[in-house]
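for the recovery benchmark. tokens below, seq after
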């Protein structure tokens, strides 16, 4: 007689703790964007860890939330991480909130989340406000595939490295930027992409919410018309082919400028290979541009 096999149960997540770390989004501007669930969680947890307790205090007071707050930021995150892990192991429930938006997106809480997961403690992310999705869907660009870049590095070499890597992709890109660095970042993007369609979202969900749309060149030429206050999200839609959108002479000038600045001491064939990767062009075309330029220079000298 055959015995029936016992039904198998689906694999359950490995989690030994009864406590939970909640990642709670907060409004990026309009206080009414707080969800009912977010308010409920913040009222019921044992502690709220806030990026800035003064900023968060305004929100918590507005919703009548009296849960004790503690601060976390990039200068004390490692110390707070150990503290949070210990509290969770004691059975406490913790919520993390950032100054605005979803924790873990361009803020320090990512390290805390990684350590909580390593310790097999439950992480519960709540859906809610974030700046990148409203900016993307209001841009009018392709939303099927997009790449979230966030803030570019401060160092010029690191910025160039990332932008040159992005140039090989054809997706929509999303950047965050501060007002005082907006012009520099747009200039760096133009030096890499040459041209693109762009949408700059400013102060999303706030009273002075604004969208600036146009070509990268037009935006830079009219940068003085952009109010440089608040939070900015840059949505970029690259052109598919350099030859379709840029004057040939302008392209050649850009290639030669890059050659003289970076690869002048390399063999022409080696420099052509590097530049071909950067400009997404055939190596032999780059080589001809360099050779023709140097022949012209020698004739004129």
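predicted aa per position
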């Amino acid at each position: 007689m055959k015995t029936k096999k016992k039904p198998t149960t689906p694999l359950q997540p490995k989690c030994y703790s009864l406590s939970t770390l909640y990642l709670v989004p907060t409004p990026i501007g309009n206080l009414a964007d707080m969800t009912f669930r977010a308010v409920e969680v913040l009222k019921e947890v044992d502690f709220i860890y806030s990026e800035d307790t003064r900023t968060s205090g305004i929100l918590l007071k507005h919703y009548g939330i009296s849960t004790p707050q503690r601060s976390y930021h990039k200068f004390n995150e490692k110390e707070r991480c150990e503290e949070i892990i210990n509290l969770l192991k004691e059975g406490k429930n913790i919520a993390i909130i950032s100054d605005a938006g979803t924790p873990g997106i361009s803020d320090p809480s990512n390290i805390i989340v990684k350590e909580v997961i390593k310790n097999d403690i439950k992480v519960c992310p709540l859906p809610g406000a974030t700046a990148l999705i409203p900016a993307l869907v209001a841009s009018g660009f392709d939303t099927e595939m997009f790449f979230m870049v966030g803030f570019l590095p401060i160092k010029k070499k690191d910025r160039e490295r990332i932008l040159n890597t992005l140039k090989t992709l054809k997706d929509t890109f999303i950047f965050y930027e501060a007002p005082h660095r907006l012009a520099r970042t747009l200039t760096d993007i133009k030096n890499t992409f040459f041209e693109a369609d762009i949408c700059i979202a400013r102060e999303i969900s706030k009273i002075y919410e604004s969208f600036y749309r146009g070509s990268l060149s037009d935006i830079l030429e009219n940068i003085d018309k952009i109010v440089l206050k608040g939070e900015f999200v840059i949505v970029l839609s690259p052109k598919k082919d350099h030859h379709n959108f840029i004057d040939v002479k302008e392209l050649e000038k850009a290639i030669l400028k890059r050659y003289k600045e970076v690869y002048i001491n390399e063999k022409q064939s080696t420099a052509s290979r590097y530049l071909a990767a950067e400009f997404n062009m055939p190596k032999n075309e780059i080589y001809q541009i360099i050779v023709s330029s140097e022949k012209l220079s020698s004739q004129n000298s």
